[in-house]
Design goal:
alpha+beta, Glucose Oxidase, domain 1, eight-stranded mixed sheet, four-stranded antiparallel sheet, 12 strands
């Protein structure tokens, strides 16, 4: 990559995608009115959360998290040197840019507020976290209770006899507003602990680098690891069900039916025909709520990433894979005890290097705070991005079904081709048409509009987004950007340099060295192509890819830092990983033999395919 990055205004639109901007609200687009401001900052492609172009309705996710994350940084727990994170779209891809604070007087003033407010959360973390769980589960239950219903030909007479006073049309508009409000509120909760959780980790990391100048980031990260996490329970449930199948002697039956591609309904019904099978199915059904509200993709950041509950072939195949591993004599348990032993040995060794009681006390306090806050940093992903979102997307599909019933759409999935503000207008038009008895206008123009948007999105998937555009920043101060995305001044220098032939540089995400044939995967629907012993190379990964981590030999990602999902889950699986390479999926090709050094952050191409 050249030293001078392209201006966001210089990026060309792919052929056939002209007018893509029409799909999105104006505030998400680069514009002439803000050109000076937008040209004088760096914009990073957020392949960590959004590796594919955004369908119009999917934009609700970045809209929600931009506001939620930023407000906690800027207005609630005022980060001393960082405000919020700006968003823009380039060819349908999300680009982000943090707003730094450089005024020393303002930094010091915000620092005092930050310390005072975060201290309260750190000192009461466990109690506040229990309250948080109740809040988010209550919100999920509220979401479940929203039933879209239909618009009847004639209202039920109870409307009159009970003097209800409002119609089904009114209720439909209210319910849609409740859905959107529920999503925004979920992300308010999502970010309540997140920023200060990463800040606690960053404080521990900063202390370690000062006290132990030669320590690498992943070693410090391993001292805050090997902790039981809710986000790993879905995969844990699959492992338990695999073990149970062996105990009940239904393992061969499950493997046979899964391998023969029987439908989930047929598999479960056949298992119910005998007592042991019924016992197994009962355990399977019990695990489904909530643990099978788990997305196969990037935490339901896209509507197309369905949950296991939407397609039970996914968990059944994974269970069958675990059964096969167990029957080969391989352990299907996570190496938790081994990881915790390694963690404690590393922690003890570094603590003993500290010479003063004051240093040891500081180390102990920062370590305790980091370990206390760490579970939220991963667990909130399950509660919000998987459990909540899996239900939310299906509620929006119910809106789509209603629009199909009234001839506004041809397919219920087409609702995702509309921004949430456009759907509100359509529902108002639908209710107006239903109330008045006149034909609506939307059915005449909407099908062609949807078709055009689908075509543009398919073409945009073929475009490879640049990792960064704009101007090199003077300083990066946002803790979230550093810890989650792994964007640091050093990393930007690496992205700006010409890569050494045959090598790709990133961050050392998880220790160890792995050698194998590369499998480049840019989309979740291609994940089944990964073969045993290969090295997975992808834009980013997610904890929901649990079974993949037992198949691959190493991991390489384009984006992410030491606390990204890819790095954390790789460490939990003792899997070598290099994250945040910026362009690994562009340089490495499927079939290349590569060496992944999770100790140095270097990926070497040993042999081209």
């Amino acid at each position: 990559m050249p030293k001078k990055w392209l201006s966001p205004f210089e990026v060309e639109t792919p052929k056939g995608c002209e007018g893509w901007q029409e799909m999105y609200p104006s505030y998400y687009l680069f514009s002439e009115e803000r050109k000076d401001f937008e040209n004088n900052r760096a914009w990073y492609c957020d392949a960590l959360h959004h590796p594919e172009p955004m369908a119009p309705f999917d934009l609700i996710l970045p809209e929600c998290w931009q506001i939620a994350l930023s407000q906690y940084n800027s207005r609630i727990f005022p980060a001393p040197a960082a405000m919020g994170i700006d968003h823009r779209l380039i060819n349908g891809y999300i680009y982000i840019s943090p707003n730094p604070i450089t005024d020393e007087e303002l930094i010091n003033r915000r620092k005092e507020q930050f310390i005072e407010r975060t201290r309260y959360y750190y000192e009461n973390w466990e109690a506040l976290y229990r309250i948080w769980k109740k809040k988010i589960i209550s919100l999920i239950n509220e979401l479940k209770d929203i039933e879209i219903g239909t618009l009847p030909e004639i209202e039920n007479e109870d409307m009159v006899k009970d003097a209800i006073g409002v119609s089904s049309g009114y209720n439909l508009l209210v319910k849609y507003n409740r859905l959107i409000e529920n999503m925004f509120k979920a992300w308010q909760y999502h970010s309540e602990f997140a920023n200060i959780g990463y800040a606690s980790y960053l404080a521990f990391m900063t202390f370690c680098k000062s006290a132990f100048p030669e320590i690498d980031e992943q070693t410090a990260a391993r001292m805050i690891s090997a902790i039981e996490l809710d986000v790993l329970k879905p995969d844990g449930e699959l492992r338990k069900l695999a073990k149970l199948s062996l105990q009940l002697n239904v393992d061969d039956k499950i493997i046979g039916m899964v391998d023969s591609e029987s439908t989930p309904e047929k598999i479960l019904n056949e298992l119910r025909e005998d007592e042991n099978g019924r016992l197994w199915v009962e355990s399977f059904e019990k695990a489904r709520d909530p643990w099978f509200y788990f997305s196969v993709g990037m935490g339901n950041f896209y509507h197309k990433h369905r949950a296991w509950n939407d397609d039970l072939t996914i968990p059944l195949r994974a269970i069958a894979d675990y059964i096969k591993m167990a029957k080969r004599g391989e352990s299907i348990d996570r190496p938790f005890d081994e990881l915790r032993k390694q963690r404690d040995e590393i922690t003890k060794g570094y603590r003993e290097l500290l010479s003063s009681i004051e240093e040891k006390d500081t180390f102990d306090q920062l370590l305790k705070t980091g370990r206390t806050s760490f579970p939220f940093l991963e667990n909130h992903v399950f509660y919000v991005e998987h459990w909540h979102h899996a239900i939310f997307w299906n509620k929006i599909r119910d809106i789509g079904k209603l629009l199909v019933e009234n001839d506004f759409l041809e397919n219920s999935e087409d609702v995702m081709m509309l921004h949430h503000s456009e759907i509100r207008q359509l529902l108002f038009e639908l209710v107006t048409s239903w109330s008045v008895g006149s034909p609506a206008r939307a059915p005449y123009y909407l099908p062609e509009k949807i078709k055009r948007r689908k075509d543009i999105l398919e073409r945009l998937k073929e475009w490879t987004p640049l990792p960064v555009v704009g101007k090199m920043p003077e300083v990066i101060t946002d803790p979230y950007i550093i810890m989650m995305w792994g964007i640091t001044s050093e990393r930007l220098d690496t992205w700006s340099e010409q890569e050494e032939e045959g090598k790709v540089k990133g961050a050392a995400g998880s220790p160890g060295i792995g050698v194998g044939v590369a499998r480049v995967i840019r989309s979740i629907d291609k994940l089944n192509e990964v073969k045993e012993g290969e090295v997975l190379v992808c834009p980013a990964t997610s904890p929901s890819w649990g079974v993949i981590f037992t198949k691959i030999n190493a991991l390489v990602t384009d984006t992410g830092g030491i606390m990204s999902h890819a790095a954390i889950v790789a460490r939990e699986h003792n899997l070598p990983a290099v994250v945040g390479t910026g362009k690994g999926t562009s340089i490495i090709k499927t079939g290349d033999k590569i060496k992944v050094d999770g100790n140095t952050g270097i990926v070497e191409i040993l042999e081209r395919a």
